[in-house]
Design goal:
Number of helices: 6
Distance between the termini: 34 Å
Radius of gyration: 19 Å
Shape: elongated
Helix content: 25-40%
Oligomer: single chain
Order of helices and strands: EEEEEEHEEHHHHEEEHE
Strand content: 25-35%
Number of strands: 12
Amino acid sequence: MMINLWPVEGVHFVAVDEDVIILDVEADQYSCLLQATSWMTLTEGGAIIVADDQSASELRGAGLATSERPAQVRLRPTEPRREWTPATGGHPLRILKASIDLLAATLAFRGKHFSDLIQPVGAVPWRTNSSQEHVLTTVLRSYRSALPWIPFERECLQRAFQLRRILMREGIATDWVFGVRTWPFGAHCWLQIGDEIIGDSLARVSQYSPIMVV
């Protein structure tokens, strides 16, 4: 008999070839179940289907899955097909503003737990589609020009946090997508608006299977 389970709050699953990768947000940890697709099926609706009670008990006992269906369906990322990566440059005052915004975002990033970083920043999007394109170009050009001057700017998590925060303050909401790959294992995150990647490259993110979107 097939048994339906669902990931517990803060835990995310994705199948990569024969393996299943698990992200535990609260623990800020990835783990891998080798060849788990032989006994586990992950559905488009978010369910975890296993074929026996022992497998179900082990997933529940590890605090990874529950028999209770969640009240809300989790977001699923749109498959990326385009990228938005304008050249550097822009007005000096815009670059100065981007530098100040980046420094503020860097201070907001430092010392925060992963689960706190991915929370909504609180602004309400107000840009129309017609004005969004111009603002995106302006912000990204200034942002990329300012990045080399910002201390402690290193990994994709920090860059995505910074850019997400800046764009939200400009009235533009983005999806923050987290992806994984295996053999060798790697994790990456990026921003999207619909099927368009913001501030990253399609070639890079296509190497990763999305595991979470916030």
